[in-house]
Amino acid sequence: MKHTLVEKIIAKHAGREEVSPGEIVDVEVDRLLVNDMNAPTVFRSFEQLGVSEVAHPDRVLIGIDHQVPPVDVKAANHLVDDRAFCEKYKLPLFTEIGRHGVGHQLMVENFTRPDEIAVGTDSHATTYGGLGCLGAGCNSSDAAVIMATGKMWMKVPETIAVHLKGHPRKGVTGKDIALAVNTLGPLTEFNYKSVEYRGEYAHEISVSDRFTICNETCETGAKNGIFPADQLTADYVGDHKAFYMDSDEGCTYAKEYEIDLDSLEPSVACPFDVSNVHPIKEVEGTRIHQAFLGSCTNGRIQDFEQAAEILKGRKVNPNVRLLVVPASQLIFRQLITSGLAEIFMDAGAAILGPSCASCGGQGEGTIGKGEVCISTTNRNWKARMGDPTSLVYLASPYIVAASAVDGVITDPRKYL
Q1: What's the pTM value of the predicted model, to 2 decimals?
Q2: Cα angle, residue 216 at apex, residues 326 and 286 outer, rounded to 5°
Q3: Where are the domains of the chain?
Q4: pLDDT by residue (tens digit) across 19-66?
Q5: Dihedral of CA 374/379/382/385: which sign?
Q6: Which CATH superfamily is domain 269-415 in?
Q7: Residue 103 is inside which H or E element, if any?
Q8: Intrachain domains 5-260 and 269-415 with the same fold
Q9: Which of 17, 19, 84, 77 is closest to 47 using CA atoms?
Q10: pLDDT 10s digits, 301-318
Q11: Using an 8 Å Cβ cutoff, are 102 and 296 in contact?
Q12: Fold for domain 5-260?
């Protein structure tokens, strides 16, 4: 039989020759992220299992990113308990403050590799598919079982193929492609599917943009998003000898879609749904109060380079605040050494330490009543970034930067 990429990865990790969609199998898990918000529940569940040790301590990364440094006593006490658990069970990968970052970014920077199964206690673990692995979210109970046994159960998903046809025009980025995916069809069609990105451009697009697209894929309800690993992947992970799998030619897809990149426009997802996507011309002129550059979706150096193209030599509108939030300490250092930090500060932006910040409505940059934010984050639900009366528009770094300069949602192409 001919199989999709994800079917092959699952079969390999289940110790099987092949698997079929709909089967439930036990798989070996290569990497696990436990973030600070879920860690207390995961650790409590683990100890209820009655085991004395973690099966593979070096496969577990404890990421502190939602409230870091702690913003209140409750958050601080969570970290006290997390540190104690890691010491007790000899978990070496606790990302202490100063060595921290958004957990998903740390997973792809230092940890996850192609053809693996990597899961995290956060839905945006789909990000890891940008490296050609099966990246997916899991719940706290699953994470506890993984820590105890090194394995989890998994239902083999059907696969949807998304063909990237042509090449993007000026001002169109991976974020615009990610938003376009949310409009391909009824999102119910994507529930628990593996979304595989194919086509010539799928092997030309940067690894950073692959992360962005796979990150946003979870918003469709999909199990995971994945790009087949290739030379760009090898360059990113620094491993040119690894064996990379791909789907068999002639394999069966549950559905196939095509995105015509030649005609794709810079786009914005309007409140209160990630699939409420419109070309920039339809929302131009909407007043904003805050612009946000960062998150696990678009907090990498390529994103900041794009924003800096527009911000260099310009000032943030006096009625707008611009927050710049690198996704890791490594990226923060790149901001400084590359001169990008100076460009942002000269423009009047505030650069924050690596974290989720206000993406989930509980960190720095939370927005108040009636305020409007243009953001590179991944969700724009009601009250997502703050007060229930606030509004969040999702867009590319280009659009966010141009809007910060003009004070209203702006087509960035006039500045490029």
Answers
A1: 0.96
A2: 75
A3: 5-260, 269-415
A4: 999 999 999 999 999 998 899 999 999 999 999 999 999 999 999 888
A5: negative
A6: Aconitase, domain 3 (3.30.499.10)
A7: helix 103-110
A8: yes
A9: 84
A10: 999 999 999 999 999 999
A11: yes
A12: Aconitase; domain 3 (3.30.499)
